[in-house]
């Protein structure tokens, strides 16, 4: 990645892509109505409330259509009883719904321990609006003993309709 330093301001410009391995999420627009956000994460760095502005957010008042988790590499825990909750939180850490996308019933250790599996979420936010604040992804294990594993979360959502012209 080439860099250019502007001597009069001391600012560094980056040219080209900066790789984040999908950790902070990203959005692919299918059309102007339905959007898809994806996050790729490891067991040792689960998505949490961001301390930066790199994290992908689902815009306020968006409606969640679906949430799916694809297990890339099987998740392994030392207790073999670790389940995952997947939800949304505000940037300041206030929970919107900690298992609103996928519940521990959806993501048991048996399910997340199978590489290549895809599981659909049945959380309370599916088919509903996330509310009046932006939502950041939050993945929480019920036991903090995940050793390894890699997953990709795919969330489809609709942004709020534009207000009619007055």
Q: Any descriptors?
A:
166 residues, mainly beta
Descriptive overview:
The chain is an all-beta fold and 166 residues long. The protein has one domain (18-158). The protein contains one helix and eleven strands, in the order ββββββββαβββ. The strands form three sheets. Strands 3-4-11-6-9 form a five-stranded antiparallel sheet. Strands 5-10-7-8 form a four-stranded antiparallel sheet, with no helix packed on it. A hairpin with a 4-residue loop joins strand 3 (26-29) and strand 4 (34-42). The chain is globular and about 55 Å long. 29% of the residues are buried. The mean pLDDT is 86.
Mean pLDDT reading = 86
Sheet with most strands: 5 strands, antiparallel
* Count of discrete structural domains: 1
| Low-pLDDT runs | none
Tally the helices. Answer: 1
Cα-based radius of gyration, to the nearest Å: 18 Å
Q: Structural class, from secondary structure content?
A: mainly beta
Helix proportion? under 10%
Spatial order of strands in the largest sheet: 3-4-11-6-9
Give the ordered list of helices and strands: EEEEEEEEHEEE
Terminal Cα span: 47 Å
Number of strands: 11
């Amino acid at each position: 990645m080439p860099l250019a330093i502007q001597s009069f301001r001391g600012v560094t410009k980056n040219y080209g892509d900066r790789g984040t391995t999908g950790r902070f999420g990203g959005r692919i627009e299918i059309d102007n109505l339905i959007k898809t956000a994806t996050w790729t994460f490891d067991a040792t760095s689960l998505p949490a409330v961001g301390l930066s502005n790199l994290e992908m957010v689902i815009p306020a008042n968006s409606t969640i259509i679906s949430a799916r988790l694809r297990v890339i590499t099987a998740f392994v825990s030392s207790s073999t009883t670790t389940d995952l909750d997947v939800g949304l939180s505000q940037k300041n850490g206030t929970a919107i719904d900690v298992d609103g996308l996928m519940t521990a019933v959806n993501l048991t250790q048996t399910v997340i321990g199978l590489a290549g599996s895809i599981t659909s979420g049945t959380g309370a936010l599916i088919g509903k609006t996330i509310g009046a604040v932006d939502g950041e992804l939050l993945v929480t294990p019920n036991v903090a003993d995940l050793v390894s594993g890699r997953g990709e979360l795919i969330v489809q959502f609709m942004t709020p309709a534009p207000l009619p012209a007055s």
